[in-house]
Automatic annotation (TrEMBL):
Transmembrane segments: 37-54, 66-90, 96-115, 122-140, 146-165, 185-209, 229-250, 262-279, 285-304
Name of the protein in question: Uncharacterized membrane protein
Keyword annotations: Membrane, Transmembrane, Transmembrane helix
Residue span(s) of domain EamA: 3-138, 147-299
Compartment list: Endomembrane system
GO cellular component: membrane
Domain of life: Bacteria
Membrane topology of the entry: Multi-pass membrane protein
Biological classification of the source: Bacteria, Bacillati, Bacillota, Bacilli, Bacillales
Entry's family note: Belongs to the EamA transporter family.
Length: 330
C-alpha cells in the first residue's frame, strides 16, 4: 500500500503540472504539433510496461483489435487532446486543469447509457455537486472567455468518451489500462501525423486559411524544437505523458482502481496552487469555491464506488457459499 501511495503522489504531481508545462511552450509549438510529439514520446515510454503486461498472454494484433486501437487513439489524441491543447492557448492553465479533471464526472452518465452501468443516488449526487462546482468556476455572470471554457469542457467530455471506449475494450478484449493507453497513444500519434502532413498540401492549407482555420494549415512536425524548448518537450513527453500514466497504472496494480483515482481528486486542488506560484495565475473566490465543490463531488463518487465494490463482493461471497452448501447437501 505504501508503494501504491508513492505512485499516486508522483502521478498526481506530473498530471498537475501538465497544463503549466504546455502553457510555457504554447507559443513555441503549434497545438497539434505539441500534441503529436508528447504522445509519441509517451507511447514509447509506456511500451516496455505494456509489453511486460502482454508477456505470456497469447496476445495477437488482429484486424478487430487494430480498428479498436485506431478508434480509441483517434478519440484520445486527435479529438480530446486537440481540444485540450487549444483550451490552454485560450484559457488559464489552472482553469483548464480544474475543468478537465471533471472528465470523471462525465463518465457517470456515459457509463449508464453506453455500458448499462447502474446509476446510483450517490453517483447522481456527485454529478450535481461537481456540475455546481463547474458553474462556480465558469461564473456565468462574468463569462469573458467563452472559447477557452468551451474547449476545456469539450476536452473533458471527449476524454470521458475515450474512457468509456477503454472500458468497452477491457470488457471485449481483456486489455488493461497500460496496454490500452500505450497502443492508443501510438495509433493516435500516427493518425495525427497523417492529418498534419495533409495540412501541408497546398490547396488544403489555402482552404483552411480561407475559412479562418489558418492555425490548422501547414502544421509543422519538428519546427520549434531547440535547446530552449527541448527540456519542456522532454518533461511533457517523458514525465507527464509517459511516467505520469505509468505511475497511475502501477498505482492501480499496487492498490485498486478506486484508490488510484485519487490522482484526479488531487489534481484540481494542486494544479491551481502550482499555477499560482509558477505562472502567477490568481485563485479567485469563485474558483476556490468550485475546487472545493468538485473535490466534494469526487469524494462522493469515490465513496459510491467503494460501496458498490463491497456490495458486489458480498453478493459474490453469498453466491459462493450458497453453491458450496448445495453441493454439500447433494
Amino acid at each position: 500500500m505504501k508503494k501504491g501511495l508513492i505512485f499516486i503522489a508522483f502521478s498526481a504531481l506530473f498530471f498537475s503540472t501538465m497544463e503549466i508545462a504546455i502553457k510555457l511552450v504554447a507559443t513555441d509549438f503549434n497545438p497539434m504539433q505539441l500534441n503529436f510529439l508528447r504522445f509519441l514520446i509517451g507511447s514509447i515510454i509506456l511500451s516496455p510496461l505494456a509489453l511486460r503486461h502482454l508477456k505470456g498472454s497469447g496476445f495477437t494484433l488482429d484486424k478487430s483489435k487494430m480498428l479498436y486501437f485506431l478508434f480509441s487513439g483517434f478519440m484520445c489524441v486527435v479529438v480530446s487532446m486537440t481540444f485540450f491543447q487549444m483550451a490552454i492557448v485560450y484559457s488559464k492553465a489552472s482553469t483548464v486543469a480544474i475543468l478537465f479533471s471533471c472528465n470523471a464526472v462525465f463518465v457517470i452518465p456515459f457509463a449508464h447509457f453506453f455500458l448499462k452501468e447502474k446509476l446510483t443516488k450517490l453517483s447522481l449526487l456527485s454529478l450535481v455537486i461537481s456540475l455546481i462546482g463547474m458553474i462556480c468556476i465558469v461564473n456565468p455572470e462574468n463569462l469573458t472567455n467563452v472559447t477557452g471554457i468551451t474547449l476545456s469542457l469539450l476536452a473533458a467530455i471527449t476524454f470521458a468518451l475515450y474512457g468509456i471506449i477503454g472500458r468497452k475494450g477491457s470488457l471485449t478484449y481483456g486489455f488493461d489500462g497500460v496496454v490500452q493507453s500505450s497502443f492508443s497513444f501510438l495509433t493516435g500519434s500516427a493518425e495525427l501525423l497523417v492529418l498534419m502532413l495533409i495540412t501541408k498540401i497546398g490547396f488544403v492549407a489555402h482552404w483552411l486559411q480561407s475559412v479562418g482555420l489558418g492555425q490548422f494549415g501547414n502544421i509543422p512536425v519538428l519546427q520549434g524544437i531547440s535547446w530552449n524548448t527541448v527540456p519542456a518537450l522532454i518533461y511533457l513527453g517523458v514525465f507527464v505523458t509517459g511516467l505520469g500514466f505509468s505511475f497511475y497504472f502501477l498505482a492501480m496494480e499496487a492498490t485498486s482502481a478506486s484508490t488510484a483515482s485519487l490522482v484526479f481528486f488531487i489534481k484540481p486542488a494542486l494544479a491551481p496552487i502550482l499555477a499560482l506560484f509558477i505562472l502567477r495565475e490568481a485563485i479567485t473566490l469563485n474558483v476556490l469555491s468550485g475546487i472545493l465543490l468538485i473535490l466534494a463531488g469526487s469524494c462522493v463518487e469515490l465513496f459510491s464506488d467503494n460501496r458498490q465494490a463491497k456490495l458486489e463482493k458480498m453478493r459474490s461471497l453469498k453466491q459462493t457459499v450458497g453453491t458450496a452448501n448445495q453441493a454439500h447437501i447433494r
